[in-house]
Amino acid sequence: MRCLAPLPTLRMSRVAAVMLLLATAPALAMPKLFESAQLTPSGEYTFGIEGPAVDRDGNLYVVNLGKPGTIGRLVPDATSSERFTDLPDGSIGNAIRIDAAGTMFIADYKKHNIFAVAPGTTAPQIIFHADEMSQPNDITLARDGAIYASDPAFKARSGRIWRITKGPDGTMQGVAMTAPRAMGTTNGIDLSPDGRTLYVGESNSGEVWSYAIEGDALTRAKLIARFEPNTIDGLRTDISGRLLVARILKGTIAVLAPDGRAIREVSLKAKEPTNLAFGGSDGKTVYVTQRQGGFIESFRTDVEGREHCLQRRAC
Predict the structure, then answer these.
(1) pLDDT tens profile 54-103
(2) Burial code of 219-238, b = ≥16 C-beta within 10 A, e = fewer?
(3) Which domain holds residue 112?
(4) pTM for the whole thing?
(5) Between the CA of residue 254 and those of 62, 98, 248, 267, 314, what are the distances in Å?
(6) What's the domain count of the chain?
């Protein structure tokens, strides 16, 4: 009987061994969705903490670091903010947005200005001013470069929306948009992914309205959600069209379908969220500014933010 030669001993390469180890090891724990955690120290920002916005490099900018009139910056993976710039004396920022070119826009509610900070610089330049404004509060940016600004008159419990665009001479020109109804104290504001619908939160009534945009006119007003009066502040949309609404005094972020249907409430670490912004490498990290405690917290979501996608010209 012929004897068969023994099979050669198989030697596992180092690369194969590492791959096998990774395949059999327990998966690394991923952050839980919609579970918020405090990110920066308490007291880092003033009671006026607001206006978060993230640039393409992942830096988060927030107004009123340490004192009114400042802009703070939180670089990726940091746990405390640094001073980015100061606004001119007497100006106090309330909202920040950053476009695809990297230009930062800041709403100055004290002096009725819109500032721009060019990429690679820190000096704010006035690009629009209107004495007729009550106080520009929140802003959002359209794909065509238009800026929409909420303009509440809190004492009168009323408000309006401004549309600011570049005129033929290259300067920014603005007009208060006409609307089919008398608005309450207009506050949080953002656009739908297709840019055709403007969502506006009214603080005094706790209502969120949608409007069709037709040039300088808002049309087809529709009440899509109603919360308790004085319990909503900033809002943002994601690429699926959902709205995330800061529930100030309630300590949550409400997630709504485009038609206003409630999807979930995200519990936060403090009770006074003023606004939120999407960031992170995939646009699925939500940063929340907390007036109670003066800090930033964050949580992961399952859909990329509209503005994050727009910055990358992917939408």
Answers:
(1) 999 999 999 999 999 999 999 999 999 999 999 999 999 999 999 999 99
(2) eeeeebbebeeebbbbbbbb
(3) 36-311
(4) 0.90
(5) 21, 24, 10, 9, 26
(6) 1
